[in-house]
């Protein structure tokens, strides 16, 4: 803040009083004594000072000490000063300037205040951007969790309409043709059942009657159809599922959908009333429906949804009601779902049309000649459906996928995790005793557990696109590399011409073995096709059978097993190897996301696992290889050292048992192979394929190569996770 003087040394004007029209704080300079020199500041300077002949360059700043105001200080030719009731124009040549440097502490205060103000502005803008981004992601998450079944019903209606108009039925994939053929008869049967139960008196109505009327018939048909197919495909026994298990699963799914449906209807009615009052009309139905999802992300609406989902407005149905409703819907499905062989039949022979599902009883005995131990009912899937699945593709979708926003913090047994889908802090497998015990525990005693689960759930992950591209390339070239399954079946041995019983028996065993291997390969190939599919899906898609094969009961999906067609058909799944069946499609969907989160809960031993069971950091080498942290950290001084040790551990083969110096020496001796693996993983020397964990080793090679080639390896940002 510099002050300048601009009066000639030979003249000291006396200023008149300001006119009455001027504001009080804009006073002109008052009369000055003869031994002083007037400046804009009120500081007096002795006239014996030596002034520079050429004024230095200065920046005009306001004087913060006095209220004297000088206008147009940047152009002194226009500077008007009063003198005896007149104003004179002073040129810069007639009056040399004086530049007075501010003390350092004044400049420090100025720059500190400017920096603080700028920093606060940047922080505010950053918070606003992050808030808008979070609201957008939350809106997507809410929409995906709440509208899955509605999208599926709409898709069936649209497909049915196109079939009628364009006669596309012969071109439909086998499984989707089955589902479409079952949809309309099942919907009509459910609608008829709803009408019958509604017409009966309360005494004569069935126990499931109050619940079957809570959802439209088309939505019930979609839930039953897809849920049942997913259960049959994921059953431990080929083509069988227990009636009680299927009924309860269907009942649970319908109960949760009723809660979501109830809330959406409530929100829609509220918005309809609000908008109609504003526009004074009833022609805004489309706008109401369009804004329905946006309203869900508002804090008040979310609070209302959480209360609704957490049984505060709708009482729990209970296992008995769920099983009774599911049993009746299963019965309607077995009565209306039929299957016909896709082969051409002669006109003389009758049509081979048979039920798609049959109700049977199975028995379990202790051994040959002993009494029956247990007898239970099962639903059997027709072999034609299974054979049709083997020649086409199937695609299932569940809502328990990685979240786009951080999960809700755990606050109770069923309070936390996903925004709307049912989430439980522990996997109880349907055990009432465990559920009651957990609900009876004081929340304060579970605080440490909740904090640990929240910490795990708040970790942000993303897809390593470089590794995923390598996986896709390997699969496109035929697989059979780095643990990926071979895309070709092994040949079936031909029947020998000999009639020797020993040779015939050996041939039968070899055929069985070949068929078993081919079924396993088919399961894995279907999985890989699903994971690598380039079709854009409304949700990350995973295999229903992988979920149901050994998955926990409490987290069974509310919107289980939707299926969507993509150009190559459908992907079928077998129970074998089902834990590996889902990774790449989830990865393909998530590869363009900035990051995602995994809600965690506990098993009965107290171990924490992600609720999404497929593409997660606790799964196989393939899963771990395509995942990395979304928020990186600099390697630091010792980071490069430990990165080399980590790479040696992933290579294994005895290298992980060496000392630290030995592992460092191993990596240093193979730097050429590491660089080649990172730059040309497919067409290079493929050194990374010799590692015990090839995809994790490849990710580490890429990370180490980037660090060593950077100008400052210690400051290089690394996103590589170190798995146990």
From TrEMBL:
Belongs to the phage and mitochondrial RNA polymerase family. GO terms for cellular component: mitochondrial DNA-directed RNA polymerase complex. Residues 272-299 form a coiled coil. It is an enzyme of class 2 (transferase). It catalyses: RNA(n) + a ribonucleoside 5'-triphosphate = RNA(n+1) + diphosphate. Keywords: Coiled coil, DNA-directed RNA polymerase, Nucleotidyltransferase, Transcription, Transferase, Transit peptide. Its EC number is 2.7.7.6. Residues 7-22 have a biased composition (Polar residues). InterPro entries: DNA-dir_RNA_pol_helix_hairp_sf, DNA-dir_Rpol_C_phage-type, DNA-dir_Rpol_phage-type, DNA/RNA_pol_sf, RNA_POL_N_sf, RPOL_N. One of its GO terms (biological process) is mitochondrial transcription. Residues 139-458 form the DNA-directed RNA polymerase N-terminal domain. SMART domains: RPOL_N. Residues 1-28 are annotated as: Disordered. GO terms for molecular function: DNA binding; DNA-directed RNA polymerase activity. This is DNA-directed RNA polymerase. It comes from the Eukaryota.
């Amino acid at each position: 803040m510099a002050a300048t003087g601009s009066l000639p040394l030979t003249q000291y004007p006396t200023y008149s009083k300001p006119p009455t029209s001027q504001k009080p704080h804009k006073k002109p300079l008052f009369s000055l004594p003869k031994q002083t020199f007037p400046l804009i500041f009120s500081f007096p300077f002795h006239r014996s000072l030596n002034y520079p002949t050429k004024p230095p360059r200065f920046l005009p700043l306001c004087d913060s000490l006095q209220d004297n105001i000088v206008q147009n200080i940047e152009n002194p030719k226009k500077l008007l000063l009063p003198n005896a009731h007149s104003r004179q124009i002073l040129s810069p040549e007639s009056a040399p300037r004086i530049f007075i440097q501010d003390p350092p502490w004044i400049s420090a205060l100025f720059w500190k205040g400017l920096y603080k103000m700028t920093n606060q502005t940047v922080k505010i803008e950053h918070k606003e951007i992050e808030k808008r981004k979070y609201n957008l992601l939350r809106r997507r998450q809410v929409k995906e969790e709440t509208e899955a079944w509605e999208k599926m019903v709409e898709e069936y209606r649209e497909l049915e309409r196109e079939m009628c108009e364009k006669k596309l039925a012969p071109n439909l994939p086998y499984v989707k043709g089955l589902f479409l053929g079952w949809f309309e008869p099942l919907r009509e049967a459910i609608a008829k059942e709803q009408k019958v139960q509604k017409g009966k008196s309360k005494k004569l109505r069935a126990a499931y009657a109050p619940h079957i009327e809570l959802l439209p018939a088309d939505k019930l048909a979609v839930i039953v159809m897809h849920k049942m197919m997913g259960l049959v495909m994921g059953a431990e026994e080929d083509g069988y599922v227990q009636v009680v298990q299927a009924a309860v699963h269907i009942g649970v799914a319908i109960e949760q959908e009723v809660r979501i449906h109830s809330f959406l209807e409530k929100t829609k009615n509220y918005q309809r009333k609000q908008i109609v009052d504003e526009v004074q009309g009833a022609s805004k139905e489309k706008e109401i429906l369009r804004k329905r999802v946006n309203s869900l992300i508002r804090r008040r609406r979310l609070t209302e949804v959480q209360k609704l989902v957490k049984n505060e407005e709708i009482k729990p149905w209970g296992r008995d009601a769920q099983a009774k409703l599911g049993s009746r819907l299963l019965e309607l499905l077995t009565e209306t779902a039929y299957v016909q062989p896709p082969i051409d039949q002669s006109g003389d022979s009758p049509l081979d049309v048979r039920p798609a599902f049959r109700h049977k009883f199975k028995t379990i005995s202790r051994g040959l000649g002993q009494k029956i131990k247990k007898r239970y009912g099962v639903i059997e899937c027709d072999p034609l459906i299974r054979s049709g699945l083997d020649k086409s593709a199937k695609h299932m979708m569940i809502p328990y996928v990685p979240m786009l926003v951080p999960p809700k913090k755990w606050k109770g047994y069923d309070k936390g995790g996903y925004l709307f889908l049912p989430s439980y802090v522990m996997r109880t497998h349907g055990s009432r005793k465990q559920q009651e015990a957990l609900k009876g525990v004081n929340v304060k005693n579970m605080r440490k557990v909740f904090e640990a689960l929240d910490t795990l759930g708040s970790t942000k992950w993303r897809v390593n696109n470089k590794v995923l591209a390598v996986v896709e390339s390997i699969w496109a070239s035929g697989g059979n590399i780095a643990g990926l399954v071979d895309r070709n079946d092994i040949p079936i041995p031909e029947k020998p011409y000999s009639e020797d019983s020993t040779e015939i028996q050996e041939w039968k065993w070899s055929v069985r073995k070949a068929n078993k291997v081919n079924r396993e390969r088919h399961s894995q190939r279907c999985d890989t096709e699903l994971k690598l599919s380039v079709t854009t899906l409304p949700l990350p898609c995973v295999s229903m059978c992988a979920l149901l094969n050994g998955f926990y009961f409490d987290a069974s999906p509310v919107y289980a097993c939707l299926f969507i067609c993509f150009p190559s058909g459908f992907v079928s799944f077998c129970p074998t190897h089902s834990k590996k069946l889902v990774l790449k499609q989830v990865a393909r969907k998530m590869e363009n996301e900035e990051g995602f989160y995994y809600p965690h809960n506990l098993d009965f031993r107290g171990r924490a696992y992600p609720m999404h069971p497929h593409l997660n950091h606790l799964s196989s080498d393939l899963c771990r290889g395509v995942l990395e942290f979304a928020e990186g950290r600099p390697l630091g001084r010792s980071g490069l050292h430990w990165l080399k040790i980590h790479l040696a551990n992933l290579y294994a083969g005895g290298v992980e048992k060496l000392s630290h110096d030995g592992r460092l020496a191993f990596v240093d001796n193979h730097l050429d192979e590491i660089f080649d693996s990172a730059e040309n993983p497919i067409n290079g020397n493929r050194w990374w394929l010799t590692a015990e964990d090839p995809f994790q080793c490849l990710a580490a090679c890429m990370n180490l190569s980037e660090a060593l080639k950077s100008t400052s390896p210690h400051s290089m940002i690394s996103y590589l996770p170190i798995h146990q």
